[in-house]
Each structure stands twice: as C-alpha cells, then as structure tokens.
Design goal:
It is built from 13 helices and ten strands. With 404 residues, it is α/β, with parallel strands linked by helices. The chain has two domains: 41 residues, no CATH class; 350 residues, 3-Layer(aba) Sandwich (Rossmann fold), CATH 3.40.50.150. Strands 1, 2, 3, 4, 5, 6, 7 and 8 form an eight-stranded mixed sheet that branches. A two-stranded antiparallel sheet has the order 9-10. The protein starts with 13 loop residues before the first helix and ends with a helix.
Length: 404
C-alpha cells in the first residue's frame, strides 16, 4: 500500500486512528512523513496513548528579562565560551564581554552571528585554545591591564568529569572510570586557566564545571588548583553546586562554581525559587522560529514512543518522555563527533527540536545556533543556562562590584 492510498479511519478514538496508521507504515516500511501529509497531519499532531493527563498550571519560568542591570561596563574575559550561555547571563546584569576564547569553529560562528561586536578569539582567527598560553597572553595583553579590574570566567570542557559521558561505556569496560585529569588535554585545561588567572590577576574569577570536578580523586585535583590561587592572594569560596531548577529554569541541571577574588567581598548564594514544569516553555511554538526543525522519526520509533507514560524511557532509543509538571531532565549535549539527541516532548511522541532544548536552557528565541543539527544540540547541551548564569552574576555584582 502506498502513502497516497492511506487515509485515517473516521472514529472517535484519535489514538486508535493514529495507531492504525503507524502500524500500516511499520508493515509497509513506507515514508511516515509522506503518509502523515496525505492524512492531513504532521508529527506535531501525533499523541501518546496516555495524553494530556498532566498539565502545568504553575508559574512561568524565570527569563533573562526578569533580571535588573546592576553594573555598567564591568569587563569580562570568557574562556571555553561555547555558544555563550554564561556570557548572555552576565550581559543581562550589565557586564561586558570584551574577549571570548573558543576553539570550536562552529561555536565561534554562532558567537559572531549573535554578538558581532564581541572579540571572539578562535578559528579562523587564532586557535582559541586556552592551552596555548603564549597565544592567549599575546591576544589579551593589548586589551586588558594587569591587574585586571574585571572578571575571568572559565568552564573548561567537562566531559572527562561527566557521569553522562561515562554512561556511554560498559561498567565492566576500562573506559568506565572517569579519567578526569588523566585526560591528555581536557583534564589539564583547568590548570591552564588557573595560570592565566595568575598571569593577569583579575579582580574576580569564576571556575564553572560539572559536579564531578569536585568529586574526582576525592577532590585532590580541584583542591590543588584552589591552593595555587590562594597562594597568589585570592580569597576563594568553597566550591558550590547550584541546580538550575532551583532558580526558575525548567530543567534539572547541576553546575559547580568556584569563585575567587582579590577583595574581601562576601558571595551570597541566591535564595531558591519553586520548581517550574517543562511544559511552561514547550507549548506550541510560533512558526518560523530558528532551529526548530524536528526529526522525521521512522514509524517503528513512533510506535514505541506512543506507548510511553510520563517520565518513562524508551530503552531502544535511550530517550525519555518528559513529565510536563516537572523540570526537564538535563538537556543532553551528545558527543563531539556523534549525533546530538534530546528527550521526548511531554505530549508529542517525538524528540525535542534544538529550539525546544534551547528554551529549556533559557536561551532567548532569537538566539541562533549555527552548524549541522547535531552540533547545534552539542552547543545547547554544553551551555550553562543563561538564567543560571545571570543568577550567579547578580551575586557577583552585589558582592564585588556594588558601586559599579
């Protein structure tokens, strides 16, 4: 049977109608997208067997626009910038990114597209590689004084310390153990960053990473980095883990922050907010939003997805249906070379688009991610949620730049 010959039977059971169509497509191995079009449907018209049984009726998530400008023109140098999640949050509070170092050319393209006035050091204009100490010093010396009266922000690549990264390996395999600082390059980038802090002596520095950085080797490596900075006269706060869901972000996402300063300011962790369900940002999106192309799943995948309950995992595809009343599970970056992937929409049996993931991460809808779709997922999934970054930046402004 061809797609053109398929028509949905007219019944009162919408799920049964869709299930019949999907089953036909599984049997015939025809193109599901074409069959849906013939039936006057799209992937977004599909429903789960158990649909709309839960609804988010609480408040709205925190948005960047909810934050007040607290400083003006306080300079920030950003390392391992990625697609700019941290920088957007700091920008909202009034900080100014005067230099950004990023070694991935696609990520650099995204930064230059969205913030053309930023000085982005990275391909094709330099390596953007923080491990290249001399290159970074030569790039920064004309731009900033020493000591630097602004902020250094650095989130070195977190994959060596990530639990999610290790879940890709068998527990019995030699790769399961987190390699951390034994990683040939990424595991040493934290100390490369520390050396730049020591060289330029910013008023404040921020180390950002996954909580695994704190736990690796019983905390010995992170403690060694902190001790180096304390020997240089920095007052370093105890490493603090913040969960984005506690600050109005519709996603569970833990990040570790280490803050140090040359002053005696006291950093106060912001008060927590009620959690917000992911459905607060996953309602029907307006047409024409960038990065909102959804995947055209095969009928067999849709057939499995449609049977999932809220919060349940499809074991074959290793994707989870989100619960609309809870923050999303952590948005997944995907491997650097492999394909990006995402969770399943709470009410549509398909994976989320890059734009929907970006909404869970609190990126503005007009922030565009460049490159292949898989690399767009990587950019979004690697980022610090801008709202969480703005929350931290607010605390930094109050503690260290109260008159700025």
């Amino acid at each position: 049977m061809t797609a053109a010959q398929l028509k949905l039977p007219v019944t009162t059971d919408e799920y049964a109608e869709q299930q019949k169509l999907i089953s036909q497509m599984v049997s015939s191995d025809d193109d599901l997208a074409a069959a849906l079009a013939v039936a006057g449907l799209s992937y977004d018209d599909l429903i789960y067997q158990r649909a709309h049984e839960k609804r988010w009726t609480g408040g709205a998530p925190t948005k960047l626009g909810d934050f007040k400008k607290l400083v003006k023109g306080v300079p920030v140098v950003s390392f391992f910038t990625g697609c700019g999640g941290m920088d957007l949050g700091f920008e909202q509070i009034g900080f100014e990114t005067i230099a950004a170092f990023e070694h991935n050319e696609i990520f650099c393209r995204t930064l230059r597209k969205n913030r053309p006035k930023w000085k982005v050091f990275g391909p094709p204009f330099g390596s953007g590689d923080v491990s290249q100490f001399v290159e970074v010093v030569e790039a920064l010396t004309p731009l900033i004084d020493t000591p630097f009266e602004g902020i250094f922000v650095g989130g070195s690549p977190c994959q060596p310390f990530s639990i999610a990264a290790n879940q890709r390996f068998s527990r019995s395999g030699e790769n399961f153990k987190r390699v951390g600082f034994a990683h040939e390059k990424n595991g040493n980038l934290l100390f490369d960053y520390v050396q730049l802090v020591i060289r330029f002596r910013p008023k404040v520095f921020v180390v950002e990473n996954v909580p695994g950085l704190r736990d690796l080797d019983g905390g010995e490596q992170l403690s060694a980095a902190i001790e180096l900075l304390r020997q240089e006269g920095y007052a370093v706060n105890e490493p603090t883990v913040l969960n984005a869901a506690d600050y109005g972000v519709p996603q569970y996402r833990e990040r570790l922050f280490v803050v140090g300063s040359r002053t005696n300011g006291k950093l106060v962790v912001p008060p927590k907010k009620p959690h917000v369900g992911c459905a607060s940002v996953l309602s029907k999106l307006p047409n024409g939003l960038p990065n909102h192309e959804t995947r055209t799943h095969k009928a067999g995948s849709i057939e499995r997805y449609m049977k999932l309950d809220y919060g349940q995992r499809d074991q074959l595809g290793r994707v989870d249906r989100l619960d609309p009343t809870l923050p999303s599970k952590t948005v997944i970056a995907g491997g650097t070379n492999g394909g990006g992937r995402s969770h399943l929409h709470p009410e549509i049996p398909r994976t989320l688009s890059v734009r929907e993931c970006a909404r869970l991460q609190t990126f503005p809808d007009d922030y565009v991610f460049l490159g292949p779709t898989a690399r767009q997922f990587t950019q979004v999934g690697n980022a610090v949620p801008p709202v969480l970054a703005a929350t931290l930046a607010t605390a930094l402004a109050n503690a260290y730049f109260p008159t700025a």
